[in-house]
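Reminder to self: tokens first, then the designed residues, so the page reads top to bottom the way the pipeline ran.
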């Protein structure tokens, strides 16, 4: 493929955010969705716990708002919180209409689970495979729509802005015309032009050594937007999930916090339950508290992991409620979770920060929108309340779609998008050396920019990352493009954004914990904007 590919909407990413947006606008225009690998490889597919929303009479939106604000530690944007949580129930109906089957009780009501930080049972789930069920249903709807075209194995490399295009553009400034897209099969780059470009590329947890995310989560959308001069916010707030399965050398696997909600107890290697010592909410405390407690307990006892004990609970019920986790532990570790505790460690899980957007997904660049985990909407503040992210994605994608459909696209005259410069050399030997930088970035981020940080550690990380960045940029300018190189360059940008943001916040708040500044300081009661 080499000619320009045009559509009204270009959606980058095929998780819940990208697909919801595409389904909403497809009646009004043509949509191209590009996605890095197969369409169902996403964070969405991995979500286990569920989607939080008020759906029963004894709960109410104000309680959900309060729980979200408490978790967010002073940095939530109240307008975003109110919008997402009050529109949530309507968007849940959309999902059900699109064919998502949430688990129900015998009497036909939604089976609502409870997770850390929630004051009510309000998590709708599809057994313990909620994300996979949502992904399945949305992809099925998408495939039936004649106006939507899906390009798998297509990866956005960079946004096309006024700096790239030629032609009569006196009136165009700070505007997005689409993206340069790399086809992973033939390694060719094609410009995808669109009136509106929507970044729905998900998270960036792969910048850390241990992550619950799939390999595609390299923060491409945020890195591309940053390179194009778009505002990015709050990248220091990275959520570490307290309980990823500890199974060294194997792909990461999440042990959902719904297990703690179900009665699971965290114990150390000596078999002692420790969470009540750290927080009165014990295992149901918010994730940051549980992750730090596990980190402290592992350091104190010099252990590689702690354990989640489910053995005191009804085994039959456990197998029924958590079939996926039961099967995975049995098959991968010969571990029967009804009989033995599960070894767990914290792992990078979710980015609260990202591309700054308005309530309708608008970024600081014209015709460019961001939705889902790639966006910073203000909903999560300094810490995300469990199961609020799927809801955020579906509400914001809806509102972004409503906004762009109301907009009249401006005519920028004869825009000429030049082809990608395909020149560049392949130097296998140098690439082998450069490739090692990925592990190095992940190690630096894990060791110095992880759950507990200090100024000294962050400065050390910054110095090392600077060297890697310079090496990479020099190589990128002369090398032939490849998917791995683009991802590595993006990981380097993400690492820089996190460290720079973390160094600016001289306090501990929500997910950002600094040993030099262990308390909140309201001087920093604002977003970190880069
Ligand atoms: C293990 C796990 C469990 C979770 N559990 C829950 C839960 O129970 N409840 C909850 O609310 N949240 C949960 N989350 C978080 C939630 O799943 C995500 O925040 C949400 O799914 C993000 O959706 P998204 O559409 O923004 O991104 P994703 O679903 O990650 O989709 C991103 C898409 O963009 C594509 N992409 C990336 N870069 C490019 C590029 N350069 N070019 C083209 N395509 C690209 C990817 O291939 C992918 O298709 C969980 C996350 C994980 C990892």
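Designed residues (530 positions):
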């Amino acid at each position: 493929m080499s000619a320009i590919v045009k559509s009204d909407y270009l959606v980058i990413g095929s998780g819940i955010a990208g697909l919801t947006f595409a389904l909403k606008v497809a009646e009004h225009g043509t949509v191209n969705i590009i996605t890095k690998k197969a369409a169902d490889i996403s964070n969405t597919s991995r979500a286990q716990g569920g989607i939080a929303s008020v759906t029963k009479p004894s709960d109410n939106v104000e309680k959900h708002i309060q729980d979200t604000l408490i978790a967010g530690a002073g940095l939530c944007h109240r307008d975003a919180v109110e919008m997402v949580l009050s529109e949530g129930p309507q968007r849940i109906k959309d999902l059900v209409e699109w064919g998502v089957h949430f688990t129900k009780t015998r009497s036909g009501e939604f089976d609502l689970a409870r997770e850390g930080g929630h004051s009510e049972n309000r998590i709708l789930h599809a057994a313990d495979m909620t994300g996979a069920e949502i992904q399945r249903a949305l992809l099925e709807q998408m495939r039936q729509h004649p106006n939507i075209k899906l390009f798998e194995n297509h990866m956005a490399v960079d946004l096309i802005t006024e700096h790239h295009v030629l032609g009569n553009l006196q009136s165009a400034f700070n505007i997005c015309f689409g993206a340069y897209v790399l086809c992973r099969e033939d390694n060719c780059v094609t410009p995808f032009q669109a009136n509106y470009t929507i970044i729905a590329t998900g998270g960036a947890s792969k910048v850390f050594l241990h992550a619950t995310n799939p390999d595609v989560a390299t923060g491409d959308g945020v890195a591309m937007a940053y390179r194009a001069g778009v505002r990015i916010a709050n990248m220091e707030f990275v959520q570490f999930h307290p309980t990823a399965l500890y199974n060294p050398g194997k792909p990461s696997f999440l042990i959902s916090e719904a297990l703690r909600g179900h009665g699971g107890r965290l114990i150390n290697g000596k078999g002692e339950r420790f969470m009540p010592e750290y927080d009165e909410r014990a295992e149901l405390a918010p994730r940051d508290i549980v992750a730090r407690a596990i980190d402290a307990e592992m350091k104190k006892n010099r252990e590689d992991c702690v354990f989640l004990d489910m053995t005191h609970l009804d085994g039959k019920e456990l197998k029924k409620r958590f079939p996926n986790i039961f099967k995975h532990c049995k098959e991968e570790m010969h571990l029967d979770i009804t009989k033995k505790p599960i070894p767990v460690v914290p792992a990078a899980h979710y980015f609260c920060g990202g591309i700054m957007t308005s309530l309708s997904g608008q970024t600081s660049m014209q015709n460019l929108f961001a939705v889902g985990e790639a966006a910073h909407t203000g909903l999560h503040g300094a810490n995300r309340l469990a199961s609020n992210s799927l809801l955020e994605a579906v509400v914001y994608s809806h509102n972004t779609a409503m906004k762009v459909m109301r907009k009249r696209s401006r005519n920028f005259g004869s825009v000429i998008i030049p082809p990608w410069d395909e020149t560049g050399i392949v130097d296998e030997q140098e690439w082998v050396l450069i490739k090692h930088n990925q592990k190095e970035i992940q190690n630096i981020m894990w060791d110095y920019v992880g759950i507990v940080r200090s100024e000294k550690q962050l400065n050390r990380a910054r110095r090392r990352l600077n060297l890697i960045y310079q090496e990479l940029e020099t190589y990128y300018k002369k090398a032939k493009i490849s998917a791995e190189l683009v991802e590595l360059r993006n990981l380097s940008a993400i690492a820089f954004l996190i460290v720079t943001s973390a160094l600016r916040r001289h306090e501990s708040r929500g997910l950002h914990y600094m040993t030099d500044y262990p308390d909140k300081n309201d001087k920093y009661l604002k977003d970190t904007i880069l």
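The chain has a mean pLDDT of 94.
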